[in-house]
Amino acid sequence: MHPLLGVPERQLACAEYIQALEECHARGWIRYLGACNSQRRELVLCLRKERLNRTARNREEAKVRTAKKKEVWAELEREG
Prior knowledge:
The chain has three helices and no strands. By secondary structure, it is an all-alpha fold.
């Protein structure tokens, strides 16, 4: 099961894969026979790449925030 696709970030990053899967699903009952599996697989790989990039970006931002907090606490301890 993939995450929600209505998020603008995902629509930009994986738009072509989302469109391909939606077009395949629109063809009707053939999707139940596995005809859309390759499109789905490509979408999942794109979403995974996007998630890993977001996780790495968040980790780096958290390191910066933690460093700033430590600086502020150290300054407060020096003053007090």
